[in-house]
Write a structure and sequence with these properties.
alpha/beta; FAD/NAD(P)-binding domain; Enolase-like, domain 1; 3 domains; 5-stranded parallel β-sheet; 5-stranded antiparallel β-sheet; 9 helices; about 30% strand; globular; binds flavin-adenine dinucleotide; FAD; FAD/NAD-bd_sf; FAD-oxidoreductase/Apoptosis; flavoprotein
Length: about 375
Amino acid sequence: MGYQEQITLINGERDLPYQRPPLSKAFLTQNLSPDDILLRPDRFFADANVRLLSGKRCVKIDRRERAVELEDSRRLRYDSLVLAIGARARSLPKSFGAIPHGVVNLRTLDEARFVRDALRSPKQVVIVGGGLIGLEMASTLSSIGCHVSLVEFHGRLMARSCSPGIAEAIEQLHRTAGVNVYLEAGTAEIHAMAGRLHGVTLTNGLRVETDICLFATGASPNIDLAHDAGLACGNGIIVDPFMRTLDPDILAVGDCTTFPSVQLGVPVRLECIQNAHGQAATAAATLVGAPAPYIVPPVFWSNQRLCKFQRVGFLDGVDLTVRREGEAGAFSLWHFSERRLRAVESLNSVHDQALARQLLVKQAPVTPEQVADPQYELRAALLN
Ligand SMILES: Cc1cc2nc3c(=O)[nH]c(=O)nc-3n(C[C@H](O)[C@H](O)[C@H](O)COP(=O)(O)OP(=O)(O)OC[C@H]3O[C@@H](n4cnc5c(N)ncnc54)[C@H](O)[C@@H]3O)c2cc1C
């Protein structure tokens, strides 16, 4: 098997393709160089017969001619086109007017370089957004001596990605580590002089002097290219379980897609590595004529210095949660819907989480009573 034809990879960024997860973690602590986070070394692309075009974005899809156009007006013909164009950080509120130097998003390597350079010596930092990325930055930056104020609009942290039980435990860890967490708060005013940030006033009236304010308020899928080409889009480019758009010659994968979830029975869009990898493998199988639907339950993780959070499955429709204790404060929450296992979240329980994933993939009949019993060997449920 394998794909013998020419593959062209249009990479809109000037850097070689890199991993994003380290950008909010180890990369900020100066321990890593951009080369350390590459997805593949430079020579890989030539060896794999992949023509890599970096630094020029694709600006148009001509479906009739089966061609794409780049920023520099080059046109490239395709037999099959895969859109893996990801998501972009949600733009900063227009009400703030011109965005001063020092107010940044963190989505790209260039933005991470800026943040890292700005934080060479310990500083006051304001982070807006208490989701996974905001919290990862908070734990990384507090570990290098920054004074971190984290501002979250909702009444709890990680409202999109975990249950309240996990959010409470994570909030406590951050507060104990010295992060000032402000819930039900936002940014009321951004203070700048000569185009440079020097302070932020929060909606709770608190003013924080800072020359860096990091916005981690979520991402929106890049759909413009697909939408302009007449492909169906909603909260993402709409694909079937084989990653095909409504045009059989165009597939889409990763953060930019909305796909039919077998587990939820509704279309969903996910922003996580496992989903991007899984969908890419599915699209590759479709392209080489060995299609198999994408059905694995989603897996999320977040490394936040003091804890490793992991989740497998969806939390929607959960009606019963069982807590299972691990060692040294580790625990996992097992979520059921009508007595069927639906999702498992854990803090520092890597072993339980690996088992949970296998149980969910296999749809093994593990019961709430078994999970609640500390003597019960979860592995046994896999044999049923
Ligand atoms: C700071 C940060 C930390 C994260 N941490 C985790 C984590 O711990 N665990 C986890 O599971 N997930 C994490 N994620 C999410 C994860 O990185 C994404 O789910 C994953 O990168 C999605 O891959 P993708 O290929 O779909 O999109 P992307 O990684 O966004 O890649 C899309 C690429 O397409 C390019 N592009 C867009 N439009 C065009 C165009 N018109 N022409 C050419 N190129 C274009 C973009 O520049 C980009 O390089 C994190 C994300 C960020 C930003």
